[in-house]
């Protein structure tokens, strides 16, 4: 996950940009919005928001067993219905970077609910950028919130998210629901498929952490309770630290009879997150394309 072992890659990326961690975070905060992310990203990616009028997005709230979840809901403009997708952000939480990601997915024809996984403690954005997580203040702020995110808690949230999506006019309930997640959100995608197996039929994990553990609630062990297809896009440094995880995921998928695409990408942990200093446009686009293939089957 986004732990201390990824700091070397981030530092190398920041060195190439000739920015310190605080300068990178401050630039995003000073510029604001999609333009800030585009200016700070270590590639020439065009990360601006889609043309006005192609999608409709709004902040929403809905009830779960544990309280009121706040989220960002976005879908294509018009009266047509679309498959629903739950988006789980990385460890820094729901912020503009993930609203942009959700909006891009909506442009591709999906009704996307980007979750604030920290709603039990605070409304989004808890942090304004990924780099705030790397500060002492950011870590101190999030640590107590992270402790509330057990697999059971996330599964309760997933049930509430599916219920919200199924109640929306923009969602086609005759089709399955998808789930995608980044870093911390990677295993949340599997929890989603296990929480509502009759509805959540596809899950894409990008540089997800904690997918293979020793406990019974490990995501790879939950796959047998699901009816979903999977995409596990693994970072090369995560694979280097735990090379057997991809083997365990493959074994679990095959034993469960679940289709799963499992690949180690030549990119560091965090490469798909657009406000991360290690964002890799080429490999992020390749992983995105594979997700769209997966979601086409919803």
UniProtKB/TrEMBL annotation:
<dbReference type="InterPro" id="IPR006311">
    <property type="entry name" value="TAT_signal"/>
</dbReference>
<feature type="domain" description="Dienelactone hydrolase">
    <location>
        <begin position="69"/>
        <end position="296"/>
    </location>
</feature>
<dbReference type="InterPro" id="IPR051049">
    <property type="entry name" value="Dienelactone_hydrolase-like"/>
</dbReference>
<protein>
    <submittedName>
        <fullName>Dienelactone hydrolase family protein</fullName>
    </submittedName>
</protein>
<dbReference type="GO" id="GO:0016787">
    <property type="term" value="F:hydrolase activity"/>
</dbReference>
<dbReference type="Pfam" id="PF01738">
    <property type="entry name" value="DLH"/>
</dbReference>
<dbReference type="InterPro" id="IPR029058">
    <property type="entry name" value="AB_hydrolase_fold"/>
</dbReference>
<dbReference type="InterPro" id="IPR002925">
    <property type="entry name" value="Dienelactn_hydro"/>
</dbReference>
<keyword id="KW-0378">Hydrolase</keyword>
């Amino acid at each position: 996950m986004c732990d201390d072992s990824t700091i070397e890659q981030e530092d190398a990326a920041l060195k190439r940009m000739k920015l310190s961690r605080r300068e990178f975070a401050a630039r995003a905060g000073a510029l604001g919005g999609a333009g800030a992310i585009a200016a700070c990203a270590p590639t020439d990616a065009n990360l601006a928001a889609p043309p006005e009028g192609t999608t409709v997005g709004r902040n929403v709230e809905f009830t779960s067993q544990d309280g009121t979840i706040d989220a960002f809901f976005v879908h294509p403009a018009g009266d047509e219905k679309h498959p629903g997708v739950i988006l789980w952000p990385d460890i820094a939480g729901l912020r503009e970077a993930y609203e942009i990601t959700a909006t891009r997915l909506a442009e591709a024809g999906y009704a996307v609910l980007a979750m604030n996984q920290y709603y039990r403690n605070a409304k989004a954005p808890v942090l304004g950028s990924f780099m705030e997580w790397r500060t002492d203040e950011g870590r101190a702020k999030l640590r107590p919130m992270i402790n509330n995110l057990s697999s059971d808690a996330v599964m309760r949230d997933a049930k509430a998210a599916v219920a919200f999506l199924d109640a929306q006019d923009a969602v086609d309930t005759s089709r399955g629901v998808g789930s995608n997640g980044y870093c911390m959100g990677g295993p949340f995608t599997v929890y989603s498929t296990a929480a509502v197996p009759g509805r959540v039929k596809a899950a894409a994990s990008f540089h997800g952490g904690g997918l293979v553990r020793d406990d019974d609630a490990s995501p790879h062990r939950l796959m047998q309770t699901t009816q979903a297809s999977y995409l596990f896009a693994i970072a090369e440094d995560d694979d280097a630290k735990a090379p057997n995880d991809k083997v365990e995921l493959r074994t679990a998928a095959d034993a469960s009879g679940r289709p799963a695409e499992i690949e180690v990408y030549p990119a560091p942990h965090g490469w798909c997150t657009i406000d991360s200093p290690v964002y890799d446009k080429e490999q992020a686009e390749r992983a995105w394309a594979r997700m769209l293939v997966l979601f086409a089957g919803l």
